[in-house]
């Protein structure tokens, strides 16, 4: 998928410095994956789950 993003320059610089990831595409993909994992973990905790190895099923993963 190809999209155009207008990302805050200071935020991008901070992300590159913090992660060491220089490739913009990889940096955005890593950030999206981290967001998905964080939200999935929160949802699991809210639902009373406690299995750290659990993951979203293929029909429930974000597209």
Overview of the molecule:
The protein is an all-alpha fold. It has a domain at 19-46. Helix content is 54%, strand content 0%. It has helices at residues 9-19, 24-46. The longest helix has 23 residues, at 24-46. The mean pLDDT is 83.
Features:
single chain; mainly alpha; 0% strand; 63 residues; 2 helices; elongated
Give the radius of gyration. 15 Å
Coarse shape: elongated
What's the N-to-C terminus distance?
A: 11 Å
Query: Could you say which structural class the secondary elements and strand pairing correspond to?
Result: mainly alpha
**Helix-strand topology string:** HH
**Percent in strands:** under 5%
Query: What is the number of strand segments?
Result: 0
Low-confidence stretches: none
Describe the biggest sheet? none
Number of helices: 2
Estimate the helix proportion, in percent.
Answer: 40-55%
Average residue-wise pLDDT: 83
């Amino acid at each position: 998928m190809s999209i155009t993003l207008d990302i805050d320059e200071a935020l991008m610089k901070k992300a590159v410095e913090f992660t060491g990831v220089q490739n913009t595409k990889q940096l955005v993909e890593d950030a999206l994956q981290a967001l998905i994992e964080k939200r999935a973990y929160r949802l699991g905790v809210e639902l009373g789950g406690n299995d750290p190895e659990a993951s979203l099923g293929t029909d429930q993963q974000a597209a």
